[in-house]
Amino acid sequence: MSKSYTSNIESFKQAIEKLEYKVSYHNLDQFNVLGCIPSAVITPSNIKELSKTLTTANEHKLSVSPRGGGTKLELGNTPDSLDIIIDMSRLNKILNHAPADLTATVESGITILNLQNELAEHGQFLAIDPALPHIATVGGVLATGIAGPMKWQHGSPRDTVIGMKIVSPDGTITKSGGQVVKNVTGYDMSRLHIGGLGTIGIIAEVSFKLTPLPPKQLTILASFNSNRIAAEVALEIFNSNLMPLAITVFDPDSQDRIPDIGMNNPVLAIKAAGRPATIERYVKDSTSIINKFGSSNVKVLDQIDSKPLWEEISNFGWDTLNSEILLCRASVLPSAVPNLIESIEKFEYDQSLIGKKISHPAYGTVLVEWYCGNGPLNNETVSTILNTFSGLIQRLDGSLVIQRCPRKFREEIDVWGKIGSSLEIMRRLKNQYDPNRTINPGRFIGGI
Amino acid sequence: MDKLTSMIADMKLVVGETYVIHTVEDLLVFEYDGSADKALPDAVVLPSNTTEVASIVKIALENEIPIIARGAGTGLSGGAVAKGGGLVLSLTRMNKILEINSKDHMAIVEPGVVNIDLSHSAEKYGLYYAPDPSSQKACTIGGNVAENSGGPHCLAYGVTTNHILGMEVVLSDGSTQWLGSNTREFQGYDLRGIMVGSEGTLGIVTKIAVRLLKKPESVRTLLAVFKHIEQASSAVSGIIAAGIVPAAIEMMDHICISAAEAAVKAGYPQDAGAILLVEVDGLTEEVAEETEEIERICDNYNPIEIRKATSMEDREKLWEGRKGVLGALGRLAPNYYLVDGTIPRTKLMEVLSGISDIAKKSGLPIANLLHAGDGNLHPSVLYDERIPGQTKVALDAGAEILKLCVDSGGVLSGEHGIGLEKQEYMPLMFTQEDMDAMSKLKPAFITMDMLNPGKIFPTGTPHVQISQGPAVARTGAGAYK
Q1: I want to staple B69 with a disulfide (CB 3.0 to 4.6 A). Which of A376, A440, B147, B200 is the partner?
Q2: Could you give the number of structural domains in chain A?
Q3: Is residue A427 part of a domain?
Q4: How many Cβ pairs within 8 Å bridge chains A and B?
Q5: pLDDT tens digit string along A208-222?
Q6: What whole-number distance in Å separates Cα of residue B266 and Cα of residue B134?
Q7: Are B187 and A423 in contact (CB < 8 Å)?
């Protein structure tokens, strides 16, 4: 550690302590980001304190990393440097909920569950269903851009945001968008921050459009002889007149956390919502499509019984502290999913890998989790194996992100995959908004 | 040979003699869009593919002449008007649907494809393109991307940005990039999302990958006529409070109703103060259940009458009055200034009463056409540009309406964009810091301020109608019939 750095952090500490913030220098290793341990954790209680913290850190040329619930810290590259963690947990207020306008504005440190509970009292919800909603925060979910199975029908988190307040690396507070659902007033700046992994600015406040809770909801389950067939049936639903909330394929046999649903073979789960006659139609049509594909093992769960199942589907890959996990997200066109699943199964067989898989065929997403304990995934083979895997997805015109990866492999792997020439625009964007590389340096695509 | 002449010669080598327009008579057609502003471009070029666009951009850059990309010119905020001259790059020849991928519910189109043509072409696969601006028979998808256009049905299905997967763009340096992907998920900053609604200031879009939706199995339209606009407004709130998000909820006030009645004889009652047009689509059961509930809610507010239609033909009839209303306003006054603010839906009555005060003060009638479901207002200030000073009164009334929208927690534009028309009002919503943060996008896209310069952000001078060159009769309204 260089001398000038040490003096920077010392003078930062003096500067920040004068501001009477909640600053902590204890248990710092608990706040590590992929092994990098910060020198301080600061917990601002409002946007002004957040702004002042950033201004001070920027002046002292220190790097900061915002932290929501800390559920997806493994996403992205190891930080180039990390001095200050900004813990967003006290920025957790609902600033405005206008039920009749179907909009809400919240501070970004609120957990998804707390927000959903409040909205549910008014018969509404935010149409994103990410992993670990009791811990994950609005800001964290938006920064990572990772949503749950409902994204097919309601879109990614990008599609629910109508406005944002951002704190820039130099502490400037800016807003974009508004609190109405239809708006073309100025550039849509929120797009830079959703999925931007906090590398452009820190999301402080967010306005959302909301969705009424459906009157009734249920889940149709069917089992098939293979994941491929289950995915083909999912696409048949995708092409039918039905518009369920979610269509997901998983293999209960390989899943240890998914609750027992009394089915062993690969399962197709369809989440349907609506009024009574509509729901009945979903059951009738889904069953007839399922039967056409040779399965008669159909079950219908009501909303309460299916809740744990959908929670675990959302949590897939993120609900274990085991750091020996390789979690891959492949994105392809929907029609490529059945082939991709089959190719992955063959690939796993060839490489002697045993994995868990969940796919959302209508959205074109396949998630694979491989355990890297003592198996074939060792330092020598991991990059070869992943190169082969990535080649397989590229042939289907898709893309691959390694969402979780054991630290020992990080040197060997580019977790973000290939992106093409638009990376240059992205580098210039980072340079425009964070020239000192104050926030999350190195963590994003191309080492941004 | 002066700079312009040599540039025209260079461009002719790229696109051919016919597709560079430079005589004043020919340029007049490109002097205006659907807004009140007019300005004569120095030249117009019509490239036929991405390579030609890139070459033209390089030529313009060498000659330091700004580029104004243009679709069908139906825009309502002056986005395609060559303020201060420049090269208009018309994308109307790039009008091919390159691919309809019915299995994956997506299409790749050139920017000059007319909005409704895409839905027509996708129809045989049971698919359609959801954003449906009122000008959809004329406007292009490229223009829709520039303005993040909405339409009556974006209440349930979202605006343009929710339907764009990726796009090819030519940047100011002539380089071509693909932003986003064909798939729903991708890595990196959402550059495609940044491009949508950037009003042609960041890049020239040359190909667009869009999502298509399945055509609903059943559609039902319900028209409810009320004596007072308060009743119609309460009915809208009631529908939303019941947890129903219909595909569309449109509202017309009594001025629109009488204009529409005179033009299309839709058979609306004489004493109608407001009309609601509600459309529900989806599964047959769903549509039946929801319409029944909507009808019950409307009944609570004492409607004069309720009409329902399921067949395509009958639905078209109910929509006829709504779709023809802007054209019909021409019967009441030679010009109208169409304002486009969005407000929180719950402030509707308050804002309508404010608009009525503004109408009284200005002495000009204001007709209200609203996408009531999402709070997007389209008040039209009726005026006659031949009467000296009246254009200014109309524009000032529009400005007051926008201020009222912002003061009510709303925004300056729901779907028409800022362009020239509203750039001076941006400080009503945004601080200098907010706008500085937005402007920082330009260097990242290396625009060198050559793309549609002087738009969106305030210049510090009040908006007065720009009018250069000979007056040309406005024909824009026809596009909205």
Answers
A1: B200
A2: 4
A3: no
A4: 250
A5: 999 999 999 999 999
A6: 18
A7: no
Q: How far apart are CA A177 and CA B478, in angstroms?
A: 32
User: What residue numbers bound the domain in which A402 lies?
Assistant: 325-409
Contact assignment for A274 to B158 by CB distance below 8 Å: no
The DSSP secondary structure of B452-481, one letter per residue, reads STT-SS--SS-----B-SS-----GGGGG-
| B309-343 tens-digit pLDDT | 989 899 988 898 888 888 889 889 999 999 999 99
CATH of residue A227: 3.30.70.2190
Instruction: Give contacts of A105 with chain B, Cβ < 8 Å.
Output: none
Q: Are residues A83 and A139 in the same domain?
A: no
Within a domain: B465: no
Do B444 and A425 make contact, defined as CB atoms within 8 angstroms?
yes
Enter the ipTM: 0.95
Return the C-alpha torsion angle B458, B464, B470, B475, nearest 10: 90
Set of chain A residues whose Cβ sits within 8 Å of the Cβ of B346: 98, 100-101
Q: Are residues A144 and A166 in the same domain?
A: yes
Partner-chain contact A192 B101, CB within 8 Å: no
CATH number assigned to the domain comprising residue B370: 3.30.70.2740
User: Would you give the distance in Å from CA B322 to the centre of its chain?
Assistant: 16
Torsion B49-B114-B202-B31 (CA) sign = positive
Which CATH number does the domain housing residue B146 bear?
3.30.465.10
- Run of H or E residues at B259: helix B254-264
Q: Which residue type does B224 have?
A: A
Contact across the interface for B346 and A166, Cβ inside 8 Å: no
Asked if residue B256 is part of any domain, the answer here is yes
